[in-house]
Every structure is written in C-alpha cells, then in structure tokens.
Write a structure and sequence with these properties.
The protein has 163 residues and is an alpha+beta fold. It has 2 helices and 8 strands, in the order H-E-E-E-E-E-E-E-E-H. The N and C termini lie far apart (92 Å).
Amino acid sequence: MDDQNVRRLGSLLLTVLGIFSLRPTPSLAIEVTVTPQKPRLGDTLSIIVIPDPGEQLTQAPNVKVGGKQVPAYRIAPQRWRALFPTIPLDKQGRRSLVVTGNQQTRNLVLWIGNRWFATQSIWLPAGNSSGTDHEFDRVDAFKAIVSPKNCGKGLLCALTMDR
C-alpha cells in the first residue's frame, strides 16, 4: 500500500467513526426542574421530576434536599412534584438535591440566598389596659394551659438590638 491509499483508508475510517459518534444515544437521566430559579430564605422550592421520553417512572421518585427526604406527589402522568419549604431560621447557602427514580440518579446543588425579615412590634401606651374582657379571658385561658414540658429544640434566637 502506498501513502495515498493509507490516507484514503484513514479518512474513510474517521468518517465512519464520525457518523457513528453522531448517532443519537439513549439518555439515562431524569429531568429535574427547581423553581424559583434563585431561591431565597422563606421560599418554598417546587421540584418537578419528569422522566426522559420513552422512560417511565413506575413509582414516586426519591427526593432528598440537604439529606432530608421530601415526599413527591404525582401531578400528571409521568410528572411528579416535591415541595421543600425554607424558613427564616434556616441558614443561607448550599443545599444538595438528590433525585432518584428507576435506578437513575441526578445530583444537583442549590444555593439558597439570604433574605431580611422585618421584626414587627405592637406598642401600647404605658398604663393603658385597653383590652376587652373577652381578650383578657382568652389570655387567662392560655396562661392556664401552659405546660412545664419543654417542646422546643435547641437555643432560642436573640432578639434584635435595634430597639
């Protein structure tokens, strides 16, 4: 074989390989959409899970946000939604999102932004007991049911020093 035939054979081989590499391959992933796209503290994340065309989820996908299991509910055929609320006491920053369905796993990273929450106060004039008898009765009833059992977990947050 001379050099010209080797080049032609090489070009033919590269062309055949190129054609096979352009052939569509089946995707083995599931589509995960999170809204809002830029979540902040106080937002509820809506996580939509849709299998690729031709795939079917036989059961609800397994959704974990920051290591916490979140239930997913069917909202349409082959469409599932999980809701994950964030609260002002959560810390801003990175959260991992792991979605598993039909032995397929998607690992995503979410960034939860900070948000400022105003503290609301009600100020009454000193020495003014402007409540009604009904309101005072309700307060007395509430004070009567206060239990010595501690239902809270962890430390209490300090009040703002702006006052």
